[in-house]
Amino acid sequence: MVKKFLFSLAVLGAVSFAQDPNLHIYLAYGQSNMSGQATITDTDRQTNPRFLVLRAGNHSNQKVGEFYPAAPPMGHSGSKVGIVDFFGRKMIKELPDSITVAVANVAIGGQSIDLFDKDRNAAYVQNAKNKNDTWWIQYLNEYGGDVHKRIVEMGKIAKQKGVIKGFLFHQGEADYQMKDWPERVKKVYDQFIEELELDPEKTPILLGELAPTGDLGWRNDAVKEAADLIPNGYVISAQGCPAIKEPSYTLHFTRDGYQTLGERYAEKMLELLKAQEPAPDSSKTDSSKVAPSDSIGRDSTASDSTNAIRNSAVARAVESHLPRLFYDVREHSLFVRFKKNGVEHRYRLTGRKE
Question: What pLDDT does residue 277 have?
Fold first, then answer.
């Protein structure tokens, strides 16, 4: 047992954990308004260590599937500034310092919801090629040639490294004539929930309205219908978010529009996170609050294994970085405890929560 404990510590390092519950990850997908169309400024390039991009596109000399400080382009190489940029900044501003937010963004302008449907995407791509509608294929290739598969891949990495907290969605302009678009949106969401083995009750999807002052603002009834079909779906209002008039259409938000909309995504997500917090149970005593002077808590269990761990070189290395080893006799589990910004955190190393 001691060897098993020591191996766990050696793999994890001082306070480096393979799966971090304080790493909140969001999977974003859609078309051009999700990829972002606002001009990138020097301010946009300023990064914060608490806001990361889980790189989903093969560009910028960054590896797909790795985390980097978030800076545009957040999606494919042609992306600019959009919803996810402002979403992430708002989230880390409002959340405790112990929380890091990451976004994986898989979005391509002008494309149907069918591109994200695992049952329809191959035929959709082939049909576009047959019609010589191929300007966007370069971006599809950056996502590995299959955006559905890439989102699932990013989701699996997200589950290994942190916790998937939800989906961010903005799409529909390309499908303004599709009568069953709401049902297709729900189908794609359901596919991701099933393939990533997520709990739909704990994994919301936020669906942004199309620009109300744009050419397709009248389609927002369909956005609401899609959200109503998904028990954990929520409409993000785009009222008051200006759109920019371009030569052939008015579909994209202005920079101010993106900021307002992105922050509304964040405000809704913060509301949902708050609602998910368990109510305090005053009937139970938290044994983790008992702080003995030793680095490993003393209890009625045999002390040979805990002393061996405490005196090992690996454990001393952990303790030299301030975290403390603690054995919880009630849970029969070994934990690492440490404080950050006055908040105590506890990570289970061994044992299983009943």
Answer: 85
